[in-house]
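User: Sequence for Cupin domain-containing protein below. Tokens please.
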Amino acid sequence: MARGEELKFGCVVRGGASYVSKQGSVYAPGVSAETAGSKVVFLGIVTLPPGGRTSAHYHEYHESAFYFMSGEEVELCTGEQLEHQERACPGDYLFIPAKVPHVAVNRGNTPAVFVGVRNEPTAQESVVMLPELDALVP
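Assistant: Structure tokens for Cupin domain-containing protein:
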């Protein structure tokens, strides 16, 4: 399906090729503008390798939600100075509002795998990188 093409029926989506996002995690799009012509939603698999982390960033206009499918433990740091830290384990859900700075760190020895959804069709439209905050999360 070409981006911008109007879908007139529902469809089974085989998914798109994985890519490394601007923020550093691996995205495997399932439903997106590229795979299904979505206009408002991204749904896919997001993976952080063992010991991996995202770079500090926020999403200007979009909310993000994740279901932690497998792995061991991920630390989610949020807030203006990434001062709010929580540990997530498989079975947990994570929610990040628009404009909230955040970093996710895989503290485990296995890949952390999430089902992720965002109310933007490409998952990269409004990413704002915050390199000045990266050193705040070891």
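The chain has a mean pLDDT of 92.
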